[in-house]
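Board notes (copied after class):
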Amino acid sequence: MSLNRNEQRVFDYLQLEAEERHYWQHKVQSFASTAADDFSAAARLETALWSYYIERAGVVPSFRAAASREGLQRTSMRNLAELILRLWGPIRPKHSKAESNENRWEEPFGAGDVSL
């Protein structure tokens, strides 16, 4: 998974700032536990991450410099949202082979009825 410049800036900042990282780890857990699925959790996180980027652009020198250089044009934070969900979200149980075989599609109607 590759991150765009803004996503990478946020991720690097969170890696360096333990208090901010802990805040976001709790936020990720909260979003994941209240969302219907990971897709909707990532969508909510993506919006929150962009708001966070805008807020940090006013106070953190590296964000401020990037904002003055690149502007604050809305940028997707979807890849970062999905990444931190995988890193900090709840551990999902893996499906067993028996479960995955039960959920497989059957052959199309009549596919097994071909006589030669």
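Comment from the instructor: The chain is about 65% helix and 0% strand. The mean pLDDT is 87.
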